[in-house]
Design brief:
alpha/beta, 10 strands, about 40% helix
Length: about 270
C-alpha cells in the first residue's frame, strides 16, 4: 500500500472515529493551507520510513508505537511488526485494528501494552522504528542498549525525531516545563512508577554520541531535515514547490538547518 493511499484511508478512519482527532488533527483545520501543512509533514515522515525499510517481509519493532498507525502501515505492506505502547493510546487499538483489517492482512501485527524496559528480545529485528519516541526514553543509555540488543547484526534503527536545536520548540518547551526534562509517573496498568522524557529532544550530534555508546552508528547519508515553512506559506506556493525548496535549503544553509527545521530523520546501523 502506498503512503498516499494509506493517508486517504486514515482520513476516512478519522471521519468514523472522531476520538482520534485530538491527535490526528487533519480534519480539525479550518484552512486548506494548515491542512496541507499537517498532511505534508505526516507524509514526509511516513515516506521516509517506507523508503528506509528495504527488506521484504522483515521483522520490525515499532518502539513506542502510540496508536499503532505506522505499525499498521508496515504490516499491511507484508512485514511482521511488534509495537509497544503505554497510556491512553492502547485503548484505541482494538477499534483501529477492526477498521484497518478491511484493507489487508494484519495477522503478522502484534500491538502490546508494555514498557520499553520490559522488552528482552535479543538480535531479533531487522529494523526498529522510533517515531517521536527517542526523546521520551529514560534513562536514555539503558533504553538505547535495549534497542541495540534487539537488532540483528547490521540491523537498523530508523529514527523520526524533532530537531533538538529548533528555536521555536526549545522556547515552547522551556516555557512549559523549564529545565525539568524527565518525569516520573505512576502507570495504573503496570502498577508501578516509570520515567518518561518530557519532550527531551536533542540535536543530531548528541544522538550520534549517545547511540555510538550502544554500538549503533548514524549513517550520515541517511540524514534528512524536514518542515521549515509555516502554514501560511502553503497559501502562496504548492506543496510540491515548498517540499523541493526545503530539501535544497538544509543542504546549503547550516544555520537554518540547525535552528529552524522542525524535524530530523536518520538511520543508525548496529555494528
Amino acid at each position: 500500500m502506498l503512503v498516499s493511499e494509506f493517508f486517504d484511508l486514515l482520513l476516512k478512519e478519522l471521519e468514523e472515529n472522531p476520538s482520534l482527532r485530538g491527535y490526528y488533527r487533519f480534519l480539525n483545520e479550518p484552512s486548506k493551507a494548515k491542512f496541507i501543512f499537517r498532511k505534508r509533514y505526516y507524509i514526509q515522515r511516513l515516506e521516509y520510513i517506507a523508503n528506509s525499510v528495504t527488506k521484504e517481509k522483515s521483522m520490525i519493532w515499532d518502539c513506542g508505537c502510540g496508536y499503532g498507525t505506522t505499525a499498521i502501515f508496515l504490516a499491511l505492506n507484508g512485514h511482521t511488526v511488534y509495537g509497544n505502547t503505554l497510556e491512553y493510546y492502547f485503548e484505541q487499538i482494538p477499534q483501529r485494528l477492526k477498521y484497518w483489517s478491511r484493507f489487508g492482512d494484519l495477522s503478522q501485527l502484534k500491538l502490546d501494552y508494555k514498557n520499553h524496559f520490559d522488552i528482552k528480545e535479543k538480535a531479533q529485528y531487522d529494523y526498529v522504528i522510533a517515531q517521536d519516541t527517542l526523546h521520551h526514553l529514560e534513562p536514555v543509555h539503558e533504553a538505547l542498549d535495549i534497542i541495540s540488543e534487539s537488532l540483528k547484526s547490521g540491523g537498523e534503527l530508523i529514527a523520526i525525531e524533532e530537531n533538538g536545536k529548533n528555536i521555536f520548540n526549545r522556547t515552547k518547551n522551556y516555557l512549559r516545563r523549564g529545565n525539568k526534562r524527565i518525569l516520573e509517573i505512576y502507570d495504573e496498568r503496570l502498577q508501578r512508577n516509570i520515567l518518561i522524557g518530557d519532550e527531551n529532544t536533542r540535536p543530531l550530534n548528541e544522538w550520534n554520541d549517545l547511540l555510538s555508546t550502544s554500538k549503533i552508528y548514524i549513517d550520515n547519508n541517511s540524514v534528512e531535515y524536514v518542515r521549515l515553512y509555516l502554514p501560511i506559506s502553503y497559501k502562496f506556493s504548492s506543496e510540491e514547490a515548498l517540499d523541493k525548496k526545503e530539501k535544497e535549503i538544509w543542504k546549503k544553509n547550516a544555520f537554518l538547518k540547525k535552528y529552524f527545521y522542525f524535524g530530523t530523520n536518520f538511520i543508525a546501523i548496529k555494528k
